[in-house]
From TrEMBL:
Signal peptide region: none
Compartment list: Cytoplasm
SMART domains, alphabetized: DHDPS
Protein name: N-acetylneuraminate lyase
Top class in the EC scheme: lyase
Annotated SUPFAM superfamilies: Aldolase
InterPro entries per UniProt: Aldolase_TIM, DapA-like
Subunit-structure text: Homotetramer.
Tree of life domain: Eukaryota
Protein family membership: Belongs to the DapA family. NanA subfamily.
Amino acid sequence: MAFPKKKLQGLVAATITPMTEDGEINFSVIGQYVDYLVKEQGVKNIFVNGTTGEGLSLSVSERRQVAEEWVTKGKDKLDQVIIHVGALSLKESQELAQHAAEIGADGIAVIAPFFLKPWTKDILINFLKEVAAAAPALPFYYYHIPALTGVKIRAEELLDGILDKIPTFQGLKFSDTDLLDFGQCVDQNRQQQFAFLFGVDEQLLSALVMGATGAVGSFVSRDLSTLLSN
């Protein structure tokens, strides 16, 4: 497994997907976006096609194109480009995972499927395992956001023994306000050296005290959205 030399940590920008007035993706500004993050914000890690990027509102083709553009424009400028590949369809999620590996992304992340929801840890793990196996050379991150998925399986429960099922698992994007669950994730997995990335900007200070190793934040992206609209 060709994992990155640097652990994913610190601030990770949750990127928006820039659009034109007629609803098409505005690929022409992504290069400017990269330069803004690196030069103006000092941010060199990004999370693409997640909630802030409205990935699940894009077609598979659009998601592939967006991922390609970020990897291409970020080459030799960004440290890590993590692509969210979660989808309701297992096959679509696997396709996006394979594509992320092919274009040279640095990792993939997946949310729980949220229409026909997994109701047990084992069912969710099996879904995640199948997606991770589609890109076996890439670090795999679970994107925990129960307020949007409706999947209430605690992250602490999910992480118990996860490396036995998903050997490429490298960490968690925790976008929930349950700090007890988050703290237990950290406390019970200190020996694993997982990345614990917190995703609720308003609670970040508390999460850092509890052991968060980084944050996937949208404040930087909101600033950029204003900049690009001017």
